[in-house]
Amino acid sequence: MSKINSKPTWAINAETLMKKKGIQKLDLLDIFGVSTPAAVGHYFQGRREPSIQGLINLAQKLDVELSSLLGLQENTHLNIKEVNAQRLTEALQLLVRCVDITPEEVMIFFKVYEKINPENIIKSINILSESDDKNSIFNSIIKVQDFMSIELKKANK
After folding, report:
1. Are 95 and 110 in contact (CB under 8 A)?
2. Which domain holds residue 105?
3. Is residue 4 part of a domain?
4. Residue 135 maps to a domain
5. Do 105 and 140 fall into the same domain?
């Protein structure tokens, strides 16, 4: 199970940039719409989730692209092997804030996500990303089914 409240990638990147630019958490109150540096600290520690607008505002304040702040690859060919469970979880947390779904649907989604296990999702993506034609895609699907049946057997023991 992944740790959802660990320090987010954006916070690590922001702290590095803030140190270089001499920006303190106190300077970010208006960015996140909060009244204390401790509230900003909760975002940086992963205890609370900032809004998309808050992250956009932070990127602007730090004079970087949002994708750079979030630690996303600049090229269009993402090497999925560089994605870990934390980054996958962070990406999904950001995505669910961008779509019109209820808090209950979000909870259900993340319960299913945790049950599947982020590491298994990454393994499946890696297997499928190696496919380049219909036959290899079919073989990859079989490989994913095989390793998932092994994982399910392990989980049920």
Report:
1. no
2. 80-156
3. no
4. yes
5. yes
Model pLDDT for residues 60-77, shown as the tens digit of each residue = 999 988 888 888 755 444
pLDDT in tens, 85-132: 887 888 888 888 878 889 899 899 999 998 888 888 888 887 777 776
Residue 85: CB partners within 8 Å, gap ≥ 6? 2, 118, 119, 122
Q: 15 or 85: whose pLDDT is higher?
A: 15
Give the span between the Cα atoms of 68 and 82, in whole angstroms: 15
The tokens describing 101, both together, are 């779904």
Total number of domains in the chain:
2
Tell me the CATH number at 58. 1.10.260.40
User: In the structure encoding, which two tokens stand for residue 109, read together?
Assistant: 């989604």
Q: Say if residue 119 is in the same domain as residue 58.
A: no
**In the structure, what pLDDT confidence band is assigned to residue 30 with cuts at 50, 70 and 90?**
very high
Q: Is the pTM of this model over 0.70?
A: no
User: Please, what is the angle between helix 52-61 and helix 9-21, to 10°?
Assistant: 30
The answer to whether residue 100 is domain-embedded is yes
